[in-house]
Amino acid sequence: MQRLKSSPLLPDHVLSAILTLAKRESGVQRFAFRGHDFQLQEIFSDLTRSGKYPILEGFVFSDNGPEPYSPVLNESVSKLQLSGLIGRENPDYEVLFLRPAAEKFYDETLAGRFSAPEIAQLRQVAGEFLGKIGLTGKAG
C-alpha cells in the first residue's frame, strides 16, 4: 500500500528544508547569517534561474522591478518567521537565524514528505546557498 502525502509541499516547506540542511552542512551550532530581504531574493533568483533545481519551481520571479523579486519567497520567509522557525535580530533585522524548532519541524514533519531525489536536490541547493552567504560546509 502506497503512503499518501497529507498535503502538497509548499514553497515554505522547501525553504525551511533548505535552511535546515544548510545549518547541518555548515556544522555550526547556531545558524545565523547576514542577509536583507533583497539579498535573499537575489540568491534564490540565481538558484532558481540556473535551472538545476526543479524543487525551486515554486519560487517564481518577476523582472518588472529593478531587481528580480518573488512574492512567494517573501511570503515564505514571513510565514517561517511567524511560525517561529526562523528569526530576525534587531535592530536592523539584517541577521536571519534558524530556530531549534526548524530542525524539529524538518525531522518530524518534512523529511518523510520529500522523496530521496528531492532530498538530494535540497542538499545541493543548501550547499550552494552556504557558498552564496559566505559560509562553507563541514565537508568543504
User: Secondary-structure element sequence?
Assistant: HEHHEEHH
Number of DSSP helices? 5
Oligomer: single chain
Radius of gyration, rounded?
15 Å
How would you state the average pLDDT, rounded?
Answer: 89
Amino- and carboxy-terminal Cα gap = 41 Å
Overall SS class: mainly alpha
Query: What are the segments in which pLDDT stays under 50 over at least 5 consecutive residues?
Result: 1-5
Number of strands: 3
Percentage of residues in strands:
5-15%
- Major sheet: arrangement of strands: 1-3-2
Shape, please?
A: globular
Total domain modules: 1
Main beta-sheet strand count, sense and barrel state: 3 strands, antiparallel
Helix amount: 40-55%
Describe this structure as you would to a colleague.
There is one protein chain. The model is unreliable at 1-5 (pLDDT under 50). This protein has a three-stranded antiparallel β-sheet. 49% of the residues lie in helices and 8% in strands. It starts with 10 loop residues before the first helix and ends in an 8-residue tail after the last helix. The protein has one domain (12-131). The chain has five helices and three strands, in the order αβααββαα.
